[in-house]
Amino acid sequence: MPNRLAAEKSPYLLQHADNPVDWHPWGEAAFARARTEQKPIFLSIGYSTCHWCHVMAHESFENPEIAALLNAHFVPVKVDREERPDVDKVYMAYVQAMTGHGGWPLSAWLTPDLKPFFGGTYFPPEDRHGRAGFPSLLRTIAAGWEKDRDKLLAEADRVIAVLTENAKAAAPGAAGGVPDLHDTGGAAFEQCFAYFNENFDAQNGGFGGAPKFPRASNLNFLFRAAAIQGVTSEAGREAVQMAAATLQKMAAGGIHDHVGGGFHRYSVDDAWFVPHFEKMLYDQGQIAINYLDAHLATGDERFAWLARDIFDYTLRDLAAPAGAFYSAEDADSLLEHGKPEHAEGAFYVWTRAEIEAALKADAAFFCDHFGIRAEGNVPSHLDPQGEFSGKNILKQQRPLGETAAAHGLVPESAVETLVAALEKLRAIRSQRPRPHLDDKIITAWNGLMISALARGAVSTAACLADKREFYRDAAVRAAGFVRRELYDEARGVLYRCHRESRGGNEGFAEDYAYFIAALLDLYEATFDACWLRWAERLQQTMDALFWDEDGGGYFNSAADDASIVLRLKEDYDGAEPSPNSVAANNLLRLAGIFHDEALRSRGRRTIEALRHQWAKVPQALPEMLCAIERALDVPCQVVIAGDPQAADFRVLAAASRESLGPRRTLLAADGGEGQRWLAGRAPWLADMHPQEGRAAAYVCIGNACQAPVVTPEALSLVLT
Description:
With 720 residues, the protein is of the alpha+beta class.
């Protein structure tokens, strides 16, 4: 019989609706039961494409004996971390503080007033190697609650007090005691660059050892470092080399889905070979921008092709019919149609016999290029359970030109052969059981993808020329979906999720920050002032809901949710950037557009709010360091007067984007309603007009604007 989760919309919660565990969703009904029955809450947090969440579900939550223990002694509560990142971050902070590590599934035991007193991540179904299994742990905690409840309650109070004190200690000092941002920001920038330089893996790309994550903020920072120094300077070349080499190695590795496009979540080894096979929307958007920046920094079209590869995958496999983007695809899938067995990566791996049958005469060339072997190519130390025995993960062994030469092919013929082979394999793979698709639509993650598509729509890369309008339109459709389905126009409030219909949770700080950034990027791709106006209103809402007037910066959650026992500020740019890092950049971008010192001041206060982190451990906040760079730079606007749809306007816009250089805000003086609205906020725009019937570009640095120019060559000279 289904439990209470059967009424939920979350794919993750629905995956557990038939468990024998008497699950409750996060909410007052569960909390009231815990208070009434004086039972502790067992909180399990995960997400629908999480491999180890599936493992623990199968081993423990589907087990009737373990379920009976949970039901008898606890109030079991399930949370989808993607629906409720605020809940997840509170209890993840606790587990990380207690154990030194975190991850999902997250398991925590709470008092009826929601304070944690014990926690961890995955627990096995039986005692192993001196470590208590889940049933033993449940019995021990239940006995402790009966016999030593006061001790557990005291521990919960102590934990919350410590976490609260830590949050207070992180707050910036009085304004008069804050060091100068020029000195400390520059030092943090240099320290972060030195960290990446020292930890760069020259052989495999990336930083440090296994496992390796494609942490996009690291590469964003390196490209900004190159832009500051100049890409031709020694430091600039070094920064570009680290970022470009990482992206090249990622593209060659198994973390890249060579057949279907896009990137998997992370690699279990240090060479990007054996991935954890889930695919997340937030990764696709951020990595695409990394590749677009790599193209700007190097001029190498191969990087733009890889951005196109990501866009092709996302628009084919993650696009919802109504215009937005789904969240993720699972790592696991059925081994065969009609059989119940699931395995990680089953959809993606190949036997040599399968490839030979599909490609025939081209198989030897293909197998040589991707390291395909009859016995399988995954070494035993990377496959301790033997899951990939006899199977192969595609990993490019060498540059295509070298493989072509080894097989007597000219480069052009090798490219055609490779493309045709991958298309054949994609058609064959499409007949396999697909991984589970998490089809909920998350506002924040759609913001990241909209930003990437908007950037792709204005890329100067030749290989994207035929796709630019397609990407722009896709970004506009996705933003339009959010406006229709996930936005309360009357209140100016975003909502977090949509699946079949809008979910009940209002947006969190990350939803506002990422989506405001997307609207600013979309404005620069379309020059439609409606996106800029919406961005300004959402910033006002974000300020009202999440701003910390005392300490500066933004809390993750709003103040009106009594179920959040501790309001936290995200101070780490991880798989997703901190909302504070993104918000600081947004505020400074808006300040540059409107010449608004209040916005600029709020942006700088947001930076100062996280000084405790970026000044001591700058590599934890590389995205915030990019905001510091923006704060210290003299604002530069390029205003193009003319019709944004006309060719003369477009060539001037392209000239302003043709290299990785200083920050620039691109505005349109189109002579219409958009310019009139902008001029109401920035009066200096009112007098900017085309020159002698031609689109004209005005470059304004600080509060001084130069004479207009009408050719891309002249504009490039002014911007040099």
